[in-house]
Amino acid sequence: MRYLGMSLGMGVALGYCAAFGTLVPPMFPAFFPKGAVVETIRQIAATTPGQVTLAGVAICLLGIGIAALAGLTKEREMPEEEKKKAIAEFSFTKGILVATFSGIMSACFAFAITWGAPIKDSSIQAGTSAIWSGLPRYIVIMLGGFTTNFVWCVLLYIKNKTGYQFFSGTLRNDPPQRNQETIIETAVDAPSEEVVKHAPRTAAAGDHRVPMLKNYLFSALAGTTWYFQFFFYAMGEVKMGKYNFASWTLHMASIIIFSTMWGWILHEWKGSSKKAHSLIASGIAVLILSTIVIGLGTWLKSKAIAP
Question: Computed from CA positions of residues 94, 95, 100, 105, in that sequence, does the dihedral angle turn out positive or negative?
Fold first, then answer.
């Protein structure tokens, strides 16, 4: 997002994340618990519901490709000064490379959800209702992300000497600028710096007071809201049955749709041609269609196995 903006950055990264996170687990039996029934892509494609579901995944990838083409069109058509107005550090080449790496690695979250099936099964055996059974997996899955972020942030606190800010309502110095620290985010993280509008300094010179209570409350709210995406994901995944691998596609497509909407709100596409606008609008329409098709495939499967 730093180099491509909200619309294209999230679109490309989550496109790779959707493709790898959706297709890799069902293609490789190693991702399934020992003794579990394994449905490969070939087996799924042998049924009508499976064909519809896979068609939905293909439509999703097509939509992602159209969104990426829209970004490339925008990059070629817009003058350099217009790009910099919306995205200060715009760089298509750097952005594509980072988004590709981020998207592929972020798909490991989907692998972890599949690998965590034994935890889900144990939860059911312990008496947990099926709809809540997927939640215990996230304790282990998110521990990895927490550890990485925690260690990196501690290193930044030491480097910038900012650890005291957890306990002090007054800044000793001006906060570090973006070029003084590195921000780490993955494709499934909530966008942070890219959508923050910093309040202007209205206090007297040298007055660096901080609203501690609001900072803690809004940080807690952000973390809770971010977690809810996986809270409801776990509930919906249960309802998709054996085709739950497609739930990852739905999740990623939804994030792409709403991140693109934020890109419009933040005027990232202002000044681009009608062709670019038409492409990004078409990409979003195709992504919405893919969610409908995947839902249809799941519904057909449920009707096929109904007594």
Answer: positive
The CA distance from 106 to 150, in Å, is 18
Window from 56-70, 83-97, 213-227, 266-280 with minimum mean pLDDT: 83-97
Number of helices and strands (H, E) in the chain?
A: 11, 0
- Which amino acid, 233? Y
Distance (Å, whole) CA 29 – CA 138: 22
Q: Which residues contact 174 (CB under 8 A, 6 or more apart)?
A: 208
What is the spatial distance between Cα 61 and Cα 121, in angstroms, rounded to a whole number?
A: 31
Q: How many CB atoms lie within 10 A of CB 189?
A: 15
Query: How far is the CA of 77 from the CAs of 71, 73, 80, 87, 190, in angstroms?
Result: 10, 6, 9, 15, 29
Which of 85-89, 95-99, 162-166, 290-294 has the least mean pLDDT?
Answer: 85-89
CA distance 55 to 289: 11
Q: State which H helix or E strand residue 9 sits in.
A: helix 6-27
Tell me what the pLDDT averaged over the chain comes to: 76
Please report, for the chain, the start and end positions of each structural domain, with discontinuous segments joined by +: 6-305
Task: Tell me how crowded residue 299 is: count the other CB atoms within 10 A of its CB.
Answer: 13
Please say if the pLDDT value at position 40 is more than 60: no
- Mutual angle of helices 92-106 and 48-77, in 10-degree steps: 160
Tokens 């439509």, residue located: 59
Q: How confident is the model at residue 41, as a pLDDT?
A: 60
Query: Between the CA of residue 156 and those of 174, 183, 184, 223, 300, what are the distances in Å?
Result: 15, 10, 11, 20, 51
Helix, strand and coil content of the chain, in percent to the nearest 5, comes to 70, 0, 25
Query: What token pair was written down for 215?
Result: 């900072």
The one-letter amino acid at 145: G
pTM for this structure? 0.65
Q: In 10 A of CB 304, how many CB atoms?
A: 10
